[in-house]
Amino acid sequence: MKRLLLIIIVLVTVWPGRAADMRNLLREMPDSILPLLTKVNRLDMLDFLNEGMKSVVVNRLDGKSELVQADEDYVRVRYSEKSEVCFRLFYFRDSVPMVCMVHTFGNELRDSRVRMFDSSWNEIDAARLLAVPGLDDFIVKGAARDSVARFKEVSQLRSIEAELSDRSNLIRFRYTGLGFLGQDSARYSVYVRQTPLEYKWNGKRFVKQPKFRM
How far apart are CA 124 and CA 108, in angstroms? Predict the structure, then answer.
């Protein structure tokens, strides 16, 4: 009986399960992940949100940061006036949790960076789990080769916005580089797909979906 009890205790302790919670992970996050926020800032944000108050704190640069949403598997932070950070929990097929972080810069002309972590905030090589699209992935099929070549010449700032869904295992990418072309943006928009590229987590990696779904 004692041996059986010991086995149960060990299994409960080491079995990964689906026990992760983004709110707890936000509490225990190293300061290096969101350097503008101290741990006290993050704890205050969560407390304010739990009390139904506006979750705004003064960050290390004396600016304002806000915890906009904090669910079990999704967190969104308005990090500064011109940036936003989202986190979402995904699970490998053996139920091991993984955190996807999307840091988006800019208000109108938005560009994102994607990072991955385990539940102890050790960084994972994101390229092994997600092939982030580039400009070529957004080029409309059938576009004239010469016109596309010219478009690529003038598109020096090739920004791409990433969006984590708070309701499903999806990440979407939109090409936002047209915004840097000024008056020429309308001229070259015909070469770029307007609908996002959608990738779905399958328990091992993010897989590109054949068609975007609302």
Answer: 30
